[in-house]
Amino acid sequence: MPAARRRVGSFISGGFFHAPRPASFRRRSRRPRHARRRAETGPHASRGYQAQLADVAGTWDTKTVLGPKDSVVVTSVLTATADGKGWTIKLANRDPIPVRVVAVGGDSVVMEAGPYESILRPGQMVTTHTVGHYKGDAMTGTIEARYASGDVLRGKTTATRRK
Fold first, then answer.
1. Following DSSP, what letter does each residue of 30-94 receive, concatenated?
2. What's the average pLDDT block by block, 10 residues per block, for the chain (163 residues)?
3. Count of domains for the chain
């Protein structure tokens, strides 16, 4: 083939050649746009709604269901502050348990508590990891309880903010 007619591009199966796509046509990521958004706070936060800790501050009455067919119910009171420090969970007949806010993004707050003595398995230590999705005065989410023995319980949690 003469040099003037030589095709430029890459080889695609089937023996066809094509010119490379311009940079503006290239796909940047296979992930959907909403999944590419960064879940972080601060000056580099993604555009759109960001849950602010001040928006979820207050006292929340929570109900967590665990076990087969959501048969185990645990109630608690979550106290949330506007700065993310001083969050606590109060279980029945227990001292308040400190809560660490791990991440804030979108409508969600990720928090961890523990290790503390389990109320479902007395004598065993547990650490909980909760993802709460906040909308107004309501919260729904998931919880994962990791025991020192290696067992893991997963469940759902709901909460309403006290007026």
1. SS-HHHHS----STTPPSS----HHHH-EEEEEEEEESGGG-EEEEEEEEE-TTSSS-EEEETTS
2. 53 55 57 48 45 88 87 91 92 94 91 94 95 94 95 94 91
3. 2
